[in-house]
Give the backbone structure.
Amino acid sequence: MASNVTAASPQIADEYRIAMTSTTAPAGFAELYERHCDAVFRAALHVTGNPADAEDVLQTVFLRVLARGGDLGAAPLPEAYFRRAAVNAAVDLLRRRAVHAEAVYDDQAPHAGSQPPVLLKEQLRRAIATLESEDATLFLLRHVEGLSIEELAVMFQLEKNNVAVRLHRIRIRLQAEMER
């Protein structure tokens, strides 16, 4: 009897997996994924600079949406929601990496202006990881994703002047962090 069960179990397992997949995924999730996965990946890649990390962020964003049953809450613009979610998840990833990273102090290090662009990008990523989550998101959506101040004001429910002032203060903090 045990041999009959083992012989049939791969087929049963496949049927069970298919049944679970089709019943647990909310209707339209595949379409939602297809429509927004490229934008999420691009936003994550801009922030992390690493395709493998961007894929991790992509997976995280859509797993969170799937865990909520495909519900985007009260997001009036799904494109903006997914870009913001990607940036947030990417910043979280950078923060986790910064906590575990070890930095070597070199008092003979050259000035930032003479460092190769790759090192400057990594230094900026580490500086962004020190910001509060909302500030990091605001900065990245403006300077990496290219959203306008007006779009950010609507997205964050702030006045345009407040967005401009916050972005200025964020740039000052990032500059100070990169000079350390």
